[in-house]
Amino acid sequence: MSGEAGVNPVEAMSEAEQAEALAEAMVFLGRDLELITSDLRAAVSEHVSPAIGDYEEETVLHLGQVAQNGINLAQNIQGADLAIADTDHENAEEFQEGLEALDIQINF
Q: What is the span of the domain harbouring residue 31?
């Protein structure tokens, strides 16, 4: 979005959908990390393996939290965008009704 006042609902929705897709993709990072650490645990000594497991567990948890926050943010943006579009539509209808009540013809 630009630095202008107001919102382009189509542009905002598109960006919110992209943000949601990125957040959902983060879920797969956890799966990829699990595959990597599984291979790593097989290659290291039994003394190091528990630390890798702990790292994996903690990192997957954090990735899940970040992904969920991203999804929540994207959904909030989408909700706000829909509210803005609804408000714009209502205001346009009220404006048109006001023009009709004043019997002023404006070519759109």
A: 10-102
Residue 54 lies in a domain: yes
Average pLDDT over residues 3-9: 61
Whether residue 70 lies inside any domain: the answer is: yes
pLDDT tens digit string along 33-82? Answer: 889 999 898 888 888 889 999 999 999 889 888 888 888 888 888 888 88
Q: Per residue in 86-105, is it b (16+ CB within 10 Å) or e — as a string?
A: eeeeeeeeeeeeeeeeeeee
| pTM score, whole prediction | 0.61
Domain count of the fold of the chain: 1
